[in-house]
Amino acid sequence: MNSQETAPNPTKESFSMDDFAQALEAHDYNFQKGQVVRGKVEVYDEDGIYVEIGAKSTAFLPMSEVAFGSLKDKDIKEVLPQEEELDFLIVREQNDEGQVTLSRRQLEIKRLWEKLIEIEENKQSLQVIVTGSNKGGVTVDVEGLRGFIPRSHLIDRDNLEALKGESLNVSFLEVNPETKKLVLSQRIAAQSASFSELELGQLVKGKIANIKPFGVFVDLGGSTALLHVKQISQNYVPSLSDLFQMGQEIKAMIINQNEGRSRISLSTKVLENYPGEMIKKMSEVMATAEARKDRAAKKILEKK
């Protein structure tokens, strides 16, 4: 034999696929509470379901942890089909027999909170169902979670009991999974929807909702805008209360928008044909506002 050739080691044994499988089975997966694992339903039992979660380990899923929300009323075999691979949340670590306890219900709740946080961050709205009412507002069903809308954040605040069963479009005021607190606003959602339909240089119609020394607030049907005293006429306005009345209909041009601060600024002086026309002949300005709006919009957009 060539002196440079290496002789086989008689003590070295080959590592077969069977050996590898046995080593894998002996591996400690160290399943921990809060961990999400993949598994397949093996056996349906009266008290729950046995699920294979890897390395031939079997975990237990109690009946109370099978489903959340509307899925609770469905057949268990429809919700969790046998041999279908699904995600599960470990809610209790291994017992003396090495078996962990799983939950689909808590996993779905966890993912729902994550979804609601994302909706809040993106300033989106969603539909909820009113389930009850009290002096402070109404309780709502948020895809299975319990939420609350304060009375001040409802559009219809007079008969809260009549809202039960109604579907409302809402935005979030607070989403806190730690305290399980969900506070919502129908009013802000309506304002956002209304805001998205408005644009600079647009002629809008609304009603006087409040009269202040510095101007009048105009209800645009979902959003409130300010017609400042300096934007009413090119001439000085001596008394707003003499010029306007609560509930009075008015047309005006949008001259500024700030969605982040929910502010809309209006002007009627850009509709005037001459200084002081709004004070002397407001009804004429309002009647011919549609014919004047293009000229007014051009002035507004040129300034921006």
The main β sheet shows up as:
5 strands, antiparallel
Please indicate the percent range of residues in DSSP E strands (runs of 2 or more).
Answer: 25-35%
CATH topological fold name of the largest domain: OB fold (Dihydrolipoamide Acetyltransferase, E2P)
Mean of residue pLDDT values: 85
Supply Rg: 33 Å
Global shape: elongated
Helical percent range?
10-25%
Quickly give the structural class.
alpha+beta
Q: Say which CATH homologous superfamily of the largest domain is assigned.
A: Nucleic acid-binding proteins
What string gives the helices and strands in order?
HEEEHEEHEEEEEHEEEHEEHHH
* Second rung of CATH, namely the architecture of the largest domain: Beta Barrel
Main sheet: which strands, in order across? 3-2-1-4-5
In total, how many domains does the architecture comprise?
3
Number of helices: 8
Low-confidence spans: 23-28
Q: Give the end-to-end Cα distance, rounded to a whole number of Å.
A: 95 Å
By oligomeric state, this entry counts as single chain
Let me know the number of strands. Answer: 15
Outline the structure in words.
The protein has helices at 17-26, 76-79, 105-121, 186-196, 240-243, 277-280, 282-287, 289-303; strands at residues 36-44, 48-52, 58-62, 85-92, 101-103, 126-134, 137-142, 145-150, 167-176, 181-185, 203-212, 215-219, 224-228, 249-258, 263-267. With 304 residues, it is an alpha+beta fold. It folds into three domains: 33-108, OB fold (Dihydrolipoamide Acetyltransferase, E2P) (Beta Barrel); 123-191, OB fold (Dihydrolipoamide Acetyltransferase, E2P) (Beta Barrel), CATH 2.40.50.140; 199-303, Nucleic acid-binding proteins (OB fold (Dihydrolipoamide Acetyltransferase, E2P)). A hairpin with an 8-residue loop joins strand 4 and strand 5. The longest helix is centred in the middle third of the chain and has 17 residues, at 105-121. It is elongated and about 90 Å long.
